[in-house]
Design brief:
Oligomer: single chain
Low-confidence stretches: 6-11
Radius of gyration: 18 Å
Strand order of the largest sheet: 1-2-3-5-4-6-7-13-14
Order of helices and strands: EEEEHEHEHEEHEHHEEHEHEHEH
Shape: globular
Number of helices: 10
Length: 295
Amino acid sequence: MAIVAPASNDGESVKMMERSLSSLGPRGFHKIAYTEWGREDDACPIVCVHGLTRNSRDFDIFADAMARTGRRVVCPDMAGRGASEWLSVKTDYDFPLYMADCAALLARLGAEQVDWVGTSMGGIIGMGLASQPGSPIRRLVLNDIGPFIPKEGLARIREVVSWNPLFADLGEVEATLRTALRSFGRFTDEQWAHLARHAVRREEDGLRLHYDPGIVEGVAKGDAGDVDLWPLFEAVRCPVLILRGAQSDILTHDTAQEMCRRHPDCRMVEFRGVGHAPMLMDEEQINVVRDWLEK
């Protein structure tokens, strides 16, 4: 399915395609949906992967902006989110499966190199792939995530995943998200409406958040302590850009600084008034990523 975005200032429109592929997991094949923007002949696409309870449509504004510069942008819904298939065995929601699904997507794209923009969970997946020998990731953007996650932040994330309210209409969804997602930063009314529209799916009794509540079982497999992935990060050889919300409880300032100390080609940018995680919807955030990718 093709959707054409509004025309840009130069009169050109950007086409967004909704596509899917079959990926092999431990119980058989499952569908992974993704959106694709921009020129198909771009030799180094940008792959954008969302956070734990989010989906590909978080990147619509960023992807549109990058596509207008001539880039190809691909944004998958990870299993159990958005338009992708829910898994029958909920404990399969884990990083080995997510990495395998993304490897299948990279094979579908047919590009020798990609740039990776990963928010939270999407950044951990990116670290995992970039740490592998022969990785196709040319540049890695870690959006408010790092190799050390404090247990306090993890406890809050687990609480968020367990939240599964029923909404009567989109107005109620938007009003709730304006409170629940206030740490993401400031948005226009149009952007809040966009987030609300793509945050839910329609069921018989109303609207529910657009992810499988069973993903909590994958999160619950971990213990209650801190997460330490320093060996994974230290195996990453490509250039790294760290984006941090200045009020983030997932990526601390000290961890971000230590990442820059340990990695030979690493830069960190903090955004004021934002917690976990910057949404890459405003011009400042988009320009930081665009300029770094174009270096």
